[in-house]
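User: Could you go from structure to sequence for me? I need the amino acid at each position, not a summary. Structure tokens:
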């Protein structure tokens, strides 16, 4: 700036509606919804010199509740005239109006802000009463409630302040298990809207099957393999030892079985919707599996996954040898792969989501920013950040704040 230039004038401080002493009016309109209600109210208010401080509107089963927080108009008789005109307008369109005098803006939200997502199938009044009472019991205040989905499950999100995320999650985990609903608690912040990396287990998570059992069915040893698999997933057996023991039973199978198993794999309901929606949002998606690359590579191609890693069955002269080659993807290996995928994707671990069902997923679930136990064994549900116990994989979208309407709108736009 040259010496001849005059610095810009800085306006003097003007009282803001957020000042505690500024007179404000809360104008509340409710009744049957129809087009033009919001425009009609603000047309009435526009006749006065006032500022809009806050607006909130919700429509439930065709009934509207519209709240406008505005500064009180100055001048003798202006407030009384405004009140009369709002009530007259409301009556003319068969609505009800309530106007409450006060001062300042909304009460500031407390620290320790979280999003609490509740999934119910159905979501009962009893469960809602218990969950909300527990939120209050740990010092939380419910600032806002929003429905994310009405099917295939009811998903409702509570914006909560005043309670730290960790203690809130612990308190609600106990309550949700007793009530038969799923509750996820995540900290509020910009990271929730950031592009993320989602990594999931394959067997009994992305797909409904245990791949090694599909192979075992062709080898005539399905029952024996299933027994060992179940013990490993419960954490009763070392995963690597159990893997080698099960794979040894497949020795001699013809490699043509691989194509048969690929055809038998059944995706979990909602799997395609989950991946398709995440990819549209710019997320990167990967899988890690204690199963086999002979199946995960096919899934990667079919579903457009960004990452995939699993064990590899050794095949020599067109036959399975009963061995795996390369480094075994076990419990610790899944966590290492999550870290590797995150580094390659350029995503911090705090912005990763891991989904799994078995004990060998625990390290991965606890390494991720959000670990989701999906229809998991009890030991996994107890240790994960949150649990989902409905058979629809796309319900994980609700934990990220994505609504069913947004998913359907995106699908319709691409049709």
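Assistant: Here is the amino acid at each position, in order:
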């Amino acid at each position: 700036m040259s010496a001849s230039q005059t610095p810009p004038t800085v306006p003097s401080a003007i009282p803001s509606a957020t000042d505690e002493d500024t007179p404000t009016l809360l104008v509340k309109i409710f009744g049957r919804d129809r087009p033009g209600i919001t425009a009609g109210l603000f047309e009435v208010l526009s006749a006065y010199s006032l500022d809009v401080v806050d607006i909130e509107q919700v429509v439930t089963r065709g009934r509207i509740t519209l709240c406008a927080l505005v500064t009180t108009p100055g001048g003798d008789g202006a407030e009384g005239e405004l009140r009369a005109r709002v009530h007259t307008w409301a009556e003319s369109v068969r609505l009800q109006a309530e106007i409450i005098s006060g001062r300042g803006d909304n009460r500031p939200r407390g620290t320790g802000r979280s999003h609490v997502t509740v999934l119910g199938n159905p979501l009962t009044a009893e469960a809602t009463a218990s969950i909300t009472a527990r939120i209050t019991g740990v010092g939380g205040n419910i600032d806002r409630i929003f429905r994310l989905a009405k099917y295939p499950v009811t998903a409702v999100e509570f914006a909560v302040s005043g309670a730290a995320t960790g203690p809130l999650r612990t308190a609600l985990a106990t309550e949700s298990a007793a009530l038969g609903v799923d509750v996820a608690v995540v900290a509020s912040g910009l990271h929730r809207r950031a592009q993320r990396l989602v990594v999931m287990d394959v067997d009994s998570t992305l797909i409904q099957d245990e791949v090694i059992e599909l192979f075992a069915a062709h080898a005539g040893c399905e029952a024996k393999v299933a027994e060992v698999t179940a013990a490993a997933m419960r954490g009763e057996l070392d995963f690597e030892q159990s893997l080698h023991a099960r794979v040894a039973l497949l020795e001699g199978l013809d490699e043509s079985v691989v194509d048969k198993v690929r055809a038998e794999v059944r995706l979990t309901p909602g799997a395609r919707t989950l991946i398709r929606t995440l990819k549209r949002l710019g997320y990167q998606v990967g899988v890690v599996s204690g199963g086999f690359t002979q199946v995960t590579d096919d899934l990667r191609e079919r579903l457009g996954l960004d990452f995939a890693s699993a064990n590899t069955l050794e095949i020599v002269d067109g036959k399975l040898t009963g061995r795996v080659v390369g480094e075994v993807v076990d419990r610790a290996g899944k966590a290492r792969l999550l870290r590797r995928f995150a580094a390659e994707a350029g995503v911090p671990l705090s912005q990763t989501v891991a989904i799994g069902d078995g004990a060998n997923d625990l390290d991965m679930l606890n390494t991720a920013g959000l670990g989701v136990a999906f229809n998991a064994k009890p030991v996994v549900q107890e240790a994960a950040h949150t649990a989902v116990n409905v058979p629809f994989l796309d319900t994980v979208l609700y934990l990220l704040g994505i609504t069913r309407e947004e998913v359907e709108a995106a699908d319709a736009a691409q049709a």
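One structural detail worth keeping in mind: The two ends are 56 Å apart (CA to CA).
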